[in-house]
Design a protein that fits this description.
Layout: H1 3-11, H2 21-30, H3 49-56, E1 60-70, E2 73-82, H4 83-89, E3 93-98, H5 112-117, E4 121-125, H6 144-163, E5 171-177, H7 179-191, E6 209-215, H8 229-242, E7 246-248, H9 259-267, E8 276-277, H10 278-293, E9 302-307, H11 315-324, E10 330-335, H12 353-369
Helix pairs in contact: 6-7
Protein backbone atom coordinates (compact mmCIF):
# COMPACT_ATOMS: atom_id res chain seq x y z
CA UNK A 1 0.00 0.00 0.00
CA UNK A 2 1.50 3.40 -0.99
CA UNK A 3 2.44 5.62 1.99
CA UNK A 4 0.19 8.35 0.55
CA UNK A 5 -2.84 6.09 1.15
CA UNK A 6 -1.91 4.56 4.51
CA UNK A 7 -3.59 7.35 6.49
CA UNK A 8 -6.97 6.22 5.15
CA UNK A 9 -6.57 2.47 5.47
CA UNK A 10 -4.61 2.40 8.71
CA UNK A 11 -5.55 5.53 10.66
CA UNK A 12 -9.28 6.08 9.98
CA UNK A 13 -11.47 4.15 12.40
CA UNK A 14 -14.37 2.21 10.90
CA UNK A 15 -17.70 2.82 12.67
CA UNK A 16 -19.33 -0.11 14.45
CA UNK A 17 -21.16 -2.20 11.87
CA UNK A 18 -23.84 -3.42 14.29
CA UNK A 19 -24.35 -1.25 17.38
CA UNK A 20 -26.55 -2.81 20.06
CA UNK A 21 -29.37 -0.36 19.30
CA UNK A 22 -29.67 -1.84 15.80
CA UNK A 23 -31.24 -5.03 17.12
CA UNK A 24 -33.95 -3.07 18.95
CA UNK A 25 -34.46 -0.47 16.23
CA UNK A 26 -37.72 -1.94 14.81
CA UNK A 27 -39.32 -1.79 18.27
CA UNK A 28 -37.86 1.62 19.10
CA UNK A 29 -39.17 3.08 15.84
CA UNK A 30 -42.71 2.13 16.90
CA UNK A 31 -42.43 4.71 19.69
CA UNK A 32 -40.97 7.39 17.43
CA UNK A 33 -37.24 6.80 17.98
CA UNK A 34 -34.86 7.21 15.07
CA UNK A 35 -31.09 6.70 15.14
CA UNK A 36 -29.23 10.01 15.61
CA UNK A 37 -27.14 9.15 12.53
CA UNK A 38 -29.11 6.95 10.09
CA UNK A 39 -25.86 6.07 8.29
CA UNK A 40 -24.40 4.71 11.56
CA UNK A 41 -21.29 6.87 11.22
CA UNK A 42 -20.49 6.14 7.55
CA UNK A 43 -21.46 9.60 6.25
CA UNK A 44 -18.82 11.16 8.50
CA UNK A 45 -15.93 9.19 7.01
CA UNK A 46 -13.37 11.08 4.88
CA UNK A 47 -13.19 10.57 1.13
CA UNK A 48 -10.89 7.75 0.05
CA UNK A 49 -7.52 8.61 -1.53
CA UNK A 50 -8.68 7.77 -5.05
CA UNK A 51 -11.87 9.77 -4.66
CA UNK A 52 -9.82 12.71 -3.41
CA UNK A 53 -7.77 12.58 -6.61
CA UNK A 54 -10.97 12.96 -8.60
CA UNK A 55 -12.10 15.85 -6.42
CA UNK A 56 -8.74 17.60 -6.52
CA UNK A 57 -8.51 17.49 -10.34
CA UNK A 58 -9.36 21.02 -11.58
CA UNK A 59 -10.67 19.61 -14.89
CA UNK A 60 -13.37 17.57 -13.20
CA UNK A 61 -16.67 19.04 -12.06
CA UNK A 62 -18.04 17.24 -8.99
CA UNK A 63 -21.57 17.36 -7.61
CA UNK A 64 -22.79 15.64 -4.43
CA UNK A 65 -26.44 14.77 -3.84
CA UNK A 66 -28.72 13.13 -1.32
CA UNK A 67 -32.04 11.78 -2.58
CA UNK A 68 -34.53 11.80 0.28
CA UNK A 69 -37.09 8.98 0.37
CA UNK A 70 -38.24 9.32 3.97
CA UNK A 71 -37.89 11.63 6.99
CA UNK A 72 -34.40 10.30 7.76
CA UNK A 73 -33.58 8.10 4.76
CA UNK A 74 -31.57 9.02 1.70
CA UNK A 75 -29.46 7.67 -1.14
CA UNK A 76 -26.07 9.34 -1.55
CA UNK A 77 -24.71 9.80 -5.07
CA UNK A 78 -22.10 11.88 -6.90
CA UNK A 79 -21.46 12.97 -10.46
CA UNK A 80 -18.05 13.55 -12.05
CA UNK A 81 -17.49 15.14 -15.44
CA UNK A 82 -14.62 16.49 -17.50
CA UNK A 83 -16.63 18.92 -19.60
CA UNK A 84 -13.70 19.67 -21.92
CA UNK A 85 -13.26 15.98 -22.71
CA UNK A 86 -17.00 15.57 -23.30
CA UNK A 87 -17.06 18.45 -25.78
CA UNK A 88 -14.00 17.16 -27.59
CA UNK A 89 -15.40 13.62 -27.82
CA UNK A 90 -18.85 14.79 -28.94
CA UNK A 91 -20.46 12.71 -26.22
CA UNK A 92 -23.70 13.44 -24.39
CA UNK A 93 -24.08 10.39 -22.20
CA UNK A 94 -23.90 9.23 -18.59
CA UNK A 95 -22.29 6.10 -17.18
CA UNK A 96 -23.75 5.00 -13.85
CA UNK A 97 -21.74 2.49 -11.82
CA UNK A 98 -23.34 0.33 -9.11
CA UNK A 99 -20.98 -1.26 -6.60
CA UNK A 100 -21.11 -4.76 -5.13
CA UNK A 101 -22.15 -6.03 -1.73
CA UNK A 102 -20.20 -4.80 1.33
CA UNK A 103 -18.62 -2.07 -0.81
CA UNK A 104 -19.26 1.60 -1.64
CA UNK A 105 -19.42 3.69 -4.79
CA UNK A 106 -15.99 5.24 -4.31
CA UNK A 107 -14.40 1.95 -5.41
CA UNK A 108 -14.93 3.11 -9.01
CA UNK A 109 -12.78 6.22 -8.58
CA UNK A 110 -9.59 4.36 -9.52
CA UNK A 111 -11.09 3.47 -12.92
CA UNK A 112 -13.04 6.67 -13.62
CA UNK A 113 -10.39 8.69 -15.45
CA UNK A 114 -10.66 6.62 -18.64
CA UNK A 115 -14.45 7.05 -18.72
CA UNK A 116 -14.11 10.79 -18.10
CA UNK A 117 -11.52 11.08 -20.86
CA UNK A 118 -14.00 9.36 -23.18
CA UNK A 119 -16.42 12.22 -22.51
CA UNK A 120 -18.83 10.34 -20.26
CA UNK A 121 -20.35 11.89 -17.15
CA UNK A 122 -19.84 9.34 -14.39
CA UNK A 123 -22.49 8.72 -11.74
CA UNK A 124 -21.62 6.71 -8.65
CA UNK A 125 -24.07 5.88 -5.90
CA UNK A 126 -24.07 4.12 -2.57
CA UNK A 127 -26.78 1.48 -2.44
CA UNK A 128 -29.17 1.50 0.55
CA UNK A 129 -27.33 0.27 3.63
CA UNK A 130 -23.95 0.94 2.01
CA UNK A 131 -21.47 3.82 2.01
CA UNK A 132 -22.94 7.23 2.81
CA UNK A 133 -26.52 6.11 2.19
CA UNK A 134 -28.74 5.45 5.18
CA UNK A 135 -29.50 2.12 6.77
CA UNK A 136 -27.78 -0.43 8.96
CA UNK A 137 -24.63 -1.52 7.16
CA UNK A 138 -25.50 -4.11 4.47
CA UNK A 139 -28.91 -4.83 5.95
CA UNK A 140 -31.06 -5.30 2.82
CA UNK A 141 -34.18 -7.34 3.65
CA UNK A 142 -35.69 -6.85 0.19
CA UNK A 143 -33.76 -6.66 -3.09
CA UNK A 144 -36.35 -4.24 -4.46
CA UNK A 145 -34.79 -1.66 -2.11
CA UNK A 146 -31.74 -1.71 -4.39
CA UNK A 147 -33.55 -1.26 -7.70
CA UNK A 148 -35.87 1.33 -6.18
CA UNK A 149 -32.80 3.21 -4.91
CA UNK A 150 -31.29 3.26 -8.40
CA UNK A 151 -34.60 4.47 -9.82
CA UNK A 152 -34.76 7.32 -7.30
CA UNK A 153 -31.27 8.41 -8.28
CA UNK A 154 -32.13 8.34 -12.01
CA UNK A 155 -35.31 10.37 -11.49
CA UNK A 156 -33.53 12.91 -9.27
CA UNK A 157 -30.67 13.16 -11.74
CA UNK A 158 -33.03 13.90 -14.64
CA UNK A 159 -34.86 16.50 -12.56
CA UNK A 160 -31.57 18.25 -11.73
CA UNK A 161 -30.57 18.29 -15.40
CA UNK A 162 -33.91 19.74 -16.40
CA UNK A 163 -33.63 22.47 -13.75
CA UNK A 164 -30.19 23.42 -15.09
CA UNK A 165 -31.14 23.39 -18.76
CA UNK A 166 -29.31 20.15 -19.54
CA UNK A 167 -30.89 17.72 -21.97
CA UNK A 168 -32.95 15.35 -19.76
CA UNK A 169 -32.94 12.76 -22.56
CA UNK A 170 -29.16 12.22 -22.41
CA UNK A 171 -28.12 8.67 -23.05
CA UNK A 172 -27.74 6.60 -19.90
CA UNK A 173 -25.64 3.45 -19.53
CA UNK A 174 -26.10 1.49 -16.32
CA UNK A 175 -23.27 -0.72 -15.10
CA UNK A 176 -22.63 -2.83 -12.06
CA UNK A 177 -20.28 -5.42 -10.62
CA UNK A 178 -21.34 -8.52 -8.66
CA UNK A 179 -24.39 -7.50 -6.58
CA UNK A 180 -24.27 -4.24 -8.55
CA UNK A 181 -24.52 -6.32 -11.73
CA UNK A 182 -27.61 -8.04 -10.36
CA UNK A 183 -29.05 -4.63 -9.42
CA UNK A 184 -28.35 -3.15 -12.86
CA UNK A 185 -29.99 -6.12 -14.60
CA UNK A 186 -32.98 -6.14 -12.23
CA UNK A 187 -33.38 -2.36 -12.62
CA UNK A 188 -33.56 -2.66 -16.41
CA UNK A 189 -36.02 -5.53 -16.05
CA UNK A 190 -38.28 -3.70 -13.58
CA UNK A 191 -38.20 -0.18 -15.00
CA UNK A 192 -37.18 -0.54 -18.66
CA UNK A 193 -38.63 -3.88 -19.69
CA UNK A 194 -41.79 -4.94 -21.51
CA UNK A 195 -43.71 -5.36 -18.25
CA UNK A 196 -42.52 -2.15 -16.60
CA UNK A 197 -45.19 0.09 -15.05
CA UNK A 198 -46.01 3.33 -16.89
CA UNK A 199 -44.13 6.42 -15.65
CA UNK A 200 -45.66 8.05 -12.59
CA UNK A 201 -47.39 11.38 -13.07
CA UNK A 202 -45.14 12.75 -10.32
CA UNK A 203 -41.95 11.77 -12.09
CA UNK A 204 -40.38 13.31 -15.21
CA UNK A 205 -39.88 11.24 -18.32
CA UNK A 206 -36.47 9.84 -17.58
CA UNK A 207 -33.95 8.72 -20.17
CA UNK A 208 -34.43 5.44 -21.93
CA UNK A 209 -31.54 3.27 -20.81
CA UNK A 210 -29.21 3.05 -23.81
CA UNK A 211 -27.38 -0.01 -22.54
CA UNK A 212 -26.33 -2.07 -19.55
CA UNK A 213 -22.77 -3.24 -18.80
CA UNK A 214 -22.49 -6.11 -16.33
CA UNK A 215 -19.24 -7.21 -14.69
CA UNK A 216 -19.30 -10.65 -13.02
CA UNK A 217 -23.02 -10.14 -12.27
CA UNK A 218 -24.63 -12.02 -9.41
CA UNK A 219 -27.02 -14.17 -11.43
CA UNK A 220 -25.87 -17.47 -10.00
CA UNK A 221 -23.84 -17.96 -6.83
CA UNK A 222 -20.72 -20.04 -7.33
CA UNK A 223 -20.74 -23.40 -5.53
CA UNK A 224 -17.60 -22.21 -3.71
CA UNK A 225 -19.52 -19.35 -2.06
CA UNK A 226 -23.09 -20.56 -1.52
CA UNK A 227 -23.74 -21.69 2.07
CA UNK A 228 -24.75 -25.29 2.68
CA UNK A 229 -28.48 -25.99 2.40
CA UNK A 230 -28.64 -26.74 6.15
CA UNK A 231 -27.27 -23.26 6.84
CA UNK A 232 -29.93 -21.72 4.57
CA UNK A 233 -32.67 -23.60 6.46
CA UNK A 234 -31.29 -22.44 9.79
CA UNK A 235 -31.14 -18.85 8.52
CA UNK A 236 -34.80 -18.98 7.51
CA UNK A 237 -35.71 -20.13 10.98
CA UNK A 238 -33.79 -17.29 12.63
CA UNK A 239 -34.73 -14.51 10.19
CA UNK A 240 -37.97 -13.38 11.84
CA UNK A 241 -36.30 -12.40 15.09
CA UNK A 242 -32.63 -12.11 14.15
CA UNK A 243 -32.62 -10.92 10.54
CA UNK A 244 -30.01 -8.27 11.33
CA UNK A 245 -27.57 -10.80 12.71
CA UNK A 246 -24.44 -11.67 10.72
CA UNK A 247 -24.55 -15.38 9.96
CA UNK A 248 -22.67 -16.56 6.83
CA UNK A 249 -19.15 -15.77 5.63
CA UNK A 250 -20.38 -14.97 2.08
CA UNK A 251 -17.54 -14.34 -0.39
CA UNK A 252 -14.70 -13.43 1.96
CA UNK A 253 -11.30 -14.51 0.64
CA UNK A 254 -12.65 -15.64 -2.74
CA UNK A 255 -12.63 -12.35 -4.67
CA UNK A 256 -8.99 -12.64 -5.74
CA UNK A 257 -5.84 -14.52 -4.89
CA UNK A 258 -4.03 -11.24 -4.26
CA UNK A 259 -3.66 -10.82 -0.50
CA UNK A 260 -3.06 -7.07 -0.74
CA UNK A 261 -6.44 -6.55 -2.46
CA UNK A 262 -8.26 -8.40 0.30
CA UNK A 263 -6.24 -6.48 2.90
CA UNK A 264 -7.18 -3.13 1.36
CA UNK A 265 -10.85 -4.12 1.38
CA UNK A 266 -10.73 -5.25 5.01
CA UNK A 267 -8.86 -2.06 5.96
CA UNK A 268 -11.24 0.32 4.19
CA UNK A 269 -13.36 2.01 6.91
CA UNK A 270 -16.32 2.41 4.51
CA UNK A 271 -16.67 -1.28 3.64
CA UNK A 272 -18.56 -3.90 5.62
CA UNK A 273 -16.32 -6.41 7.39
CA UNK A 274 -18.89 -8.57 9.18
CA UNK A 275 -20.67 -11.73 8.14
CA UNK A 276 -23.57 -11.59 5.72
CA UNK A 277 -26.74 -10.67 7.61
CA UNK A 278 -29.46 -13.31 7.68
CA UNK A 279 -32.15 -11.11 6.11
CA UNK A 280 -29.79 -9.88 3.41
CA UNK A 281 -28.70 -13.39 2.44
CA UNK A 282 -32.28 -14.63 2.20
CA UNK A 283 -33.30 -11.55 0.18
CA UNK A 284 -30.49 -12.28 -2.30
CA UNK A 285 -31.71 -15.87 -2.77
CA UNK A 286 -35.30 -14.67 -3.34
CA UNK A 287 -34.10 -11.97 -5.74
CA UNK A 288 -32.02 -14.43 -7.76
CA UNK A 289 -34.99 -16.77 -8.11
CA UNK A 290 -37.20 -13.96 -9.45
CA UNK A 291 -34.55 -12.58 -11.79
CA UNK A 292 -33.81 -16.05 -13.19
CA UNK A 293 -37.47 -16.43 -14.16
CA UNK A 294 -37.57 -13.04 -15.89
CA UNK A 295 -34.25 -12.80 -17.76
CA UNK A 296 -36.10 -12.50 -21.06
CA UNK A 297 -37.52 -9.15 -19.86
CA UNK A 298 -34.08 -7.57 -20.25
CA UNK A 299 -34.45 -5.87 -23.63
CA UNK A 300 -31.84 -3.10 -23.58
CA UNK A 301 -28.45 -3.36 -25.36
CA UNK A 302 -26.26 -5.62 -23.24
CA UNK A 303 -22.57 -6.21 -22.57
CA UNK A 304 -21.56 -8.92 -20.08
CA UNK A 305 -18.04 -9.60 -18.83
CA UNK A 306 -17.29 -12.56 -16.57
CA UNK A 307 -14.13 -14.31 -15.46
CA UNK A 308 -13.95 -18.06 -15.96
CA UNK A 309 -12.08 -18.45 -12.64
CA UNK A 310 -14.67 -16.52 -10.62
CA UNK A 311 -15.25 -18.28 -7.26
CA UNK A 312 -18.03 -15.93 -6.10
CA UNK A 313 -20.47 -15.69 -8.99
CA UNK A 314 -20.76 -18.31 -11.72
CA UNK A 315 -20.19 -17.33 -15.32
CA UNK A 316 -22.85 -19.88 -16.28
CA UNK A 317 -25.44 -17.47 -14.88
CA UNK A 318 -24.09 -14.78 -17.22
CA UNK A 319 -24.34 -17.20 -20.14
CA UNK A 320 -28.01 -17.85 -19.35
CA UNK A 321 -28.69 -14.12 -19.07
CA UNK A 322 -27.01 -13.52 -22.44
CA UNK A 323 -29.03 -16.26 -24.11
CA UNK A 324 -32.35 -15.14 -22.60
CA UNK A 325 -32.05 -11.36 -23.06
CA UNK A 326 -34.45 -10.19 -25.76
CA UNK A 327 -32.20 -7.76 -27.60
CA UNK A 328 -30.32 -8.09 -30.87
CA UNK A 329 -27.57 -5.84 -29.51
CA UNK A 330 -25.82 -8.09 -27.01
CA UNK A 331 -22.28 -9.25 -26.39
CA UNK A 332 -20.66 -11.54 -23.82
CA UNK A 333 -16.96 -11.75 -22.97
CA UNK A 334 -15.81 -14.72 -20.91
CA UNK A 335 -12.37 -13.69 -19.68
CA UNK A 336 -10.10 -16.70 -19.31
CA UNK A 337 -8.43 -16.88 -15.90
CA UNK A 338 -10.04 -13.70 -14.52
CA UNK A 339 -11.32 -13.94 -10.97
CA UNK A 340 -14.24 -12.09 -9.36
CA UNK A 341 -12.64 -8.64 -9.36
CA UNK A 342 -12.37 -8.07 -13.10
CA UNK A 343 -11.03 -4.53 -12.73
CA UNK A 344 -8.22 -5.49 -10.37
CA UNK A 345 -5.61 -2.75 -10.53
CA UNK A 346 -2.10 -4.10 -11.08
CA UNK A 347 1.08 -3.12 -9.29
CA UNK A 348 2.78 -1.99 -12.51
CA UNK A 349 2.04 -1.62 -16.21
CA UNK A 350 2.53 -5.30 -16.99
CA UNK A 351 0.45 -6.41 -14.00
CA UNK A 352 -2.31 -4.00 -14.99
CA UNK A 353 -2.83 -5.39 -18.49
CA UNK A 354 -5.80 -7.54 -17.51
CA UNK A 355 -7.64 -4.53 -16.08
CA UNK A 356 -6.81 -2.42 -19.13
CA UNK A 357 -8.07 -5.16 -21.42
CA UNK A 358 -11.41 -5.26 -19.57
CA UNK A 359 -11.65 -1.46 -19.66
CA UNK A 360 -10.90 -1.50 -23.40
CA UNK A 361 -13.74 -3.96 -23.98
CA UNK A 362 -16.19 -1.75 -22.04
CA UNK A 363 -15.11 1.55 -23.58
CA UNK A 364 -14.97 0.16 -27.13
CA UNK A 365 -18.54 -1.07 -26.64
CA UNK A 366 -19.68 2.28 -25.25
CA UNK A 367 -17.94 4.50 -27.80
CA UNK A 368 -20.24 4.08 -30.82
CA UNK A 369 -23.35 3.98 -28.61
CA UNK A 370 -22.61 7.16 -26.63
CA UNK A 371 -22.21 9.67 -29.47
CA UNK A 372 -24.71 12.50 -29.77
Amino acid sequence: MPPSESWYYEDVQAPASTPLSAFFEPILRLVGWTPPDPTYGRACLPFSPWERRIRDDPKITVHDYRVQYGPSEWISYHTWQDEGAAEKAGVEADFMFIHGINDAGHIFARHARRFLDAGLRVIILDLPGHGRSTGLHVYVPDMNYLTDGVHRVVVHHVQRDREHGINPQRKLFVSGASLGGYTAAAYCMRYHGPNSPPPSLTEPDGPIVSGVVLQCPLIEVSADSRPAYAVELMARGLSFFLGRLGFAAANKGRNTDRIEIEYAFESDPSTYHGKLRIATGLAILRGLTELESRLSEITVPLLVLHGTSDRVTSYHGSERLYQAAQTDDKQIELLEGYQHIILRQGDDEADDRDRQRALDIILNWLEPRSKR
